[in-house]
From TrEMBL:
Name of the featured protein: Bifunctional chorismate mutase/prephenate dehydratase
Native organism taxonomy: Bacteria, Pseudomonadati, Pseudomonadota, Gammaproteobacteria, Pasteurellales
Residues bound to substrate: 9, 26, 37, 46, 50, 84, 88
EC number: 4.2.1.51, 5.4.99.5
Chorismate mutase domain span: 1-92
Site keyed Essential for prephenate dehydratase activity: positions: 278
Record's GO cellular component terms: cytoplasm
InterPro entries: ACT-like_dom_sf, ACT_dom, Chor_mutase/pphenate_deHydtase, Chorismate_II_sf, CM_dom_sf, CM_II_prokaryot, CM_P_1, Preph_deHydtase
Function statement: Catalyzes the Claisen rearrangement of chorismate to prephenate and the decarboxylation/dehydration of prephenate to phenylpyruvate.
Length: 385
């Protein structure tokens, strides 16, 4: 005799609750692990150990005939490992920097519900339970809020997997004394949001920020007779559509932000790339101390001479000192036609002897060199088996 659907669902609910309990127990063990590593000074990540663990779990599932796809098992435990690494990293960083503020202020582009707003909440949830949120109308205003001491942190998008680098933010980094203190990757899930339960065919005007429009260009090009109107941010677009309350208009935004404004999802999964991610940086007045045990990045700004091979000479320094370069971005220097500055992102801790030696050597082959920040990376690349 087969069970009815309600009984099956009750069993599933109970299993899900058991899984949550086990995940909580594993999460708590991460603190025991980091306290042990704190004593031994071992690096938080052991990639070979992670590979071995994943392979053993896949083999165990197959040996026990659990009928679980190896890729499914791998993806689940990659996420569990990521949680463990970030938990340990936050423990060390909070202890090292002695963060005790009861409330923290953060500046971001747009209003509540913007991607920058949601990213700021994700980044600072480990730091303070109380956030003072400061909406800004431009990237420049975000910098100004922090520079004037009106905000403790500023959250800024730096690059997107679909539309590439956000040049305005790179250019503003040339002219600030603020320092980078963190980064995070935030998944971007664009939706068409409207008033009430409407059909896509009813919409003749879509409000959006230029960045989401670029990231959803293929979808927008497929819409006949739909006018695209630009706003200061996605949150401005959502607020405007909610205020006008017309069934023929819509906004490009995210589902969570849409809920804040009472908007419904009309169409989802509309980005050119399904795996659409924006990397955000965090700026502050003072640098952070970074534990030598955590995965660390350093962002440099440099210029080289105009002679042949000058840039190659500079980049060879990193190879010589076995420092991995993760990004190289060039931007024009205002007032100097045909000359460029280079942003160089490294997997390196500025306080290590190896990095200091490389920077000393780099100064001899560059005409200008500035460290924009040294910060722990919250982007945990999953190991593959």
């Amino acid at each position: 005799m087969s069970l009815d659907l309600s009984e099956i669902r009750q069993q599933i609910t109970q299993i899900d609750r058991d899984l949550l309990k086990l995940l909580s127990e594993r999460h708590r063990l991460a603190f025991d692990v980091v306290r042990s590593k704190e004593i031994t000074q071992k690096p938080l990540r052991d990639v070979e150990r992670e590979k071995q663990l994943l392979q053993e779990l896949v083999n165990f599932a197959q040996a026990e005939n659990y009928q679980l796809d190896p890729q499914y098992v791998t993806q689940i435990f990659q996420r569990i490992i990521e949680d463990s690494v970030l938990t340990q990293q936050n423990y060390l960083q909070n202890k090292l920097n002695e963060i005790k503020e009861s409330s923290i202020s953060v500046a971001f582009l747009g209003m509540r519900g913007s991607y920058s707003h949601l990213a700021s909440r994700q980044f600072l949830k480990q730091v303070s339970e109380s956030l003072i949120e400061l909406s800004c109308e431009s990237f420049n205003q975000v910098f100004q809020k922090v520079e004037k001491g009106e905000a403790d942190y500023g959250i800024l998008p730096l690059e997107n997997t679909t539309s590439g680098s956000i040049n305005e933010v790179y250019d503003l980094l040339q002219h600030t004394d603020l320092t980078l203190v963190g980064e995070l990757a935030y998944p971007i899930k664009h939706c068409v949001l409207g008033n009430g339960k409407i059909d896509l065919a009813q919409i003749d005007t879509i409000y959006t920020h230029p960045q989401p429009a670029q990231q959803c260009s293929q979808f927008l090009q497929g819409l006949d007779k739909v006018h695209i109107k630009y706003c200061e941010s996605s949150s401005h677009a959502m607020q405007l559509v909610a205020r006008l309350n017309k069934r023929n208009i819509a906004a490009l935004g995210n589902e969570d932000g849409g809920k804040l404004y009472g908007l419904n999802v009309v169409e989802t999964e509309i980005a050119n790339q399904k795996n659409n991610i924006t990397r955000f940086i965090v700026v502050a007045k003072e640098p952070v101390k970074v534990s030598p045990q955590v995965q660390t990045k350093t962002l440099l700004l440099m210029t080289t001479g105009q002679e042949a091979g000058a840039l190659v000479d500079a980049l060879t320094v990193f190879k010589k000192h076995d420092i991995r370069m993760t990004k190289l971005e060039s931007r024009p220097i205002y007032g100097k036609p045909w000359e460029e500055m280079f942003y160089v992102e490294l997997e390196a801790n500025i306080h290590s002897a190896q990095t200091q030696q490389a920077l000393n050597e780099l100064e001899t082959v560059t005409s200008y060199l500035k460290v924009l920040g040294c910060y722990p990376s919250e982007i945990i690349e999953p190991v593959k088996i």
